[in-house]
Amino acid sequence: MTPVRTGPAAFTVTASRDYDPEVGALPSMSLGRYEIDLPGGEAARRLFAAGARHVTLPRPVDVTDPADAAWAVRALSFVGDLSSLAVSVDWQLHTGPDADAWRHYGHLHPPTAVLGTADPAATALAWRTTYYICKCVYRYGPGFIQVRDRRYGELRRFTIDEPEYREAIEALTDGARVDAIPRPILDDLMGETLVLRLGDRLWWAPYKVRRWSEAPLVI
User: Fold this and answer.
1) Disulfide-capable partner of 73 in 154, 175, 195, 219 (CB 3.0 to 4.6 Å)?
2) Residue range 24-34: average pLDDT?
3) DSSP letters along the chain, please?
4) What is the C-alpha separation between 13 and 153, in angstroms, rounded?
5) pTM of this prediction?
6) Which of 27, 21, 23, 41 has the alpha carbon at shortest distance from 89?
7) Any long-range contacts for 110-116 (C-beta under 8 Å, 24+ apart)?
8) What is the pLDDT of residue 212?
9) Strand 11-16 vs strand 144-149: parallel, antiparallel, or unpaired?
10) Residue 26 confidence (pLDDT)
């Protein structure tokens, strides 16, 4: 992957060719360190094309710290892009004391630790046992965007065809500042938990569907 020196703030990950971290650490399987300085979707696709099937983030993602919101949103979007390609991710998430907060993020590849909860081990286990690919995704159709969300136990489906909403989602894809999205649109998207606010940043929760786990009509 050829680094590009423009675009979002860069960070460095390590990658390997195998889903098993122990196997991935072998010299023939390790892909070494990659600087992620592209939008998350493009960076994830390039890693996948290079053979990456397991990626390790450089540090925990803390969604409770407003001062770290820019990193949190960037990292969450990137994890979503990797999840959409069925690439496993070694990462940690700090959600705070709310025992159910993890469900907002439960469509992402399960982290190795869920920090800040009363029972981190039980929370991480609940996440792992309920995870599957395409749990909360969006796709483009001719003149519309469709979202399918099963994070909360039942299918919620949204078809978004208003041009101003589609423009907002485009702006949100890799994270955006709160003041970048018109307030009425933001209120609607946040009301459905499709957008989460972290400090002064916004995170678009669904990831773009790239690999169906089953036939699309079943999903």
Assistant:
1) 175
2) 88
3) -----SSSPPEEEEEESSSSHHHHTSTTTEEEEEEE-S-HHHHHHHHHHTT--EEE-SS-EETT-GGGHHHHHHHHHHHHHHHHTT-EEE-EEE--S-TTGGGGGTTSPPPSEEETSS-HHHHHHHHHHH--TTSEEEEEETTEEEEEE-TTSS-EEEEE--HHHHHHHHHHTT-EEGGGS-HHHHHHHHHTTSEEEETTEEEE--EE--S-SS-TTT-
4) 32
5) 0.91
6) 21
7) 113/60, 115/60, 115/62, 116/64
8) 57
9) unpaired
10) 84
The per-residue pLDDT of the chain, averaged, comes to 90
Tokens standing for 191?
A: 């009301």
Task: Work out the pLDDT band at 120, boundaries 50, 70, 90.
Answer: confident
Tokens of 200: 């002064």
Tokens of 22: 């122990």
Under 8 Å between Cβ of 64 and 97: no
